[in-house]
Amino acid sequence: MRGAYPRRRGIALLGLALLAGGWIGGCDSGREDPEESLLRERCGLCHRYDNALNKRKSATGWERTVWAMRQRGAELSDQEAEQLVRYLTQKRALP
Ligand code: HEC
């Protein structure tokens, strides 16, 4: 059957795009990680809050980044900072 293959590939690509979109953009707005609202509220003041979600870093890398942002003025308690570092390390580890 002509045309069957490209169509199937199209659907597979669409699936991939939805998957990636859902993961990065947080499509399912029903439930949100508490860290995600931290990110939005405390990290979205100076740049897009998903700045961090476009990057991948090691645990140390995220620790440095969050500390650097606190130096710049991000308002996070020690506990919130640790929570975010853990979250980012988990979600956005190096591949
Ligand atoms: C007081 C302002 C401010 C706040 C609040 C802030 N940032 Fe930033 N951030 C900056 C500036 C300035 C830059 C450098 C310019 C740029 O890359 O947009 C930056 C860059 C970044 C980068 C890209 C550079 C890198 O090191 O990879 C990441 C990731 C990042 N910020 C994450 C965060 C996170 C996570 C938070 C919340 C904990 C946060 N930022 C809060 C000012 C801020």
Residue runs with pLDDT of under 50 for 5 or more positions: none
Overall CATH architecture of the largest domain: Orthogonal Bundle
- Principal-axis shape equals elongated
Determine the N-to-C terminus distance: 39 Å
Q: Average the pLDDT over all residues and give the rounded result.
A: 82
Tell me what portion of residues adopts beta-strand conformation: under 5%
Tally of domains:
2
State the CATH topology of the largest domain: Cytochrome Bc1 Complex, Chain D, domain 2
Helix/strand order, N-terminal first: HHHH
CATH class of the largest domain: Mainly Alpha
Total count of helical runs of at least 4 residues: 4
> What Rg, in angstroms, do the CA atoms define?
17 Å
Query: What class, by secondary structure content?
Result: mainly alpha
Helix content: 55-70%
Bound molecules: heme C
Sheet with most strands: none
User: Could you tell me the number of beta strands?
Assistant: 0
Question: How is this structure best described in words?
Answer:
With 95 residues, the chain is an all-alpha fold. It folds into 2 domains: 29 residues; 64 residues, Cytochrome Bc1 Complex, Chain D, domain 2 (Orthogonal Bundle). Helix 3 packs across helix 4. The longest helix is centred in the N-terminal third of the chain and has 22 residues. The structure holds heme C. Heme C binds next to helix 2 and helix 3.
Salient structural properties:
binds heme C; 63% helix; 95 residues; 4 helices; elongated
Helix and strand arrangement:
Blueprint: H1 4-25, H2 34-43, H3 59-72, H4 78-91
Helix pairs in contact: 3-4
The structure holds heme C.
Heme C binds near residues 74 and 84.
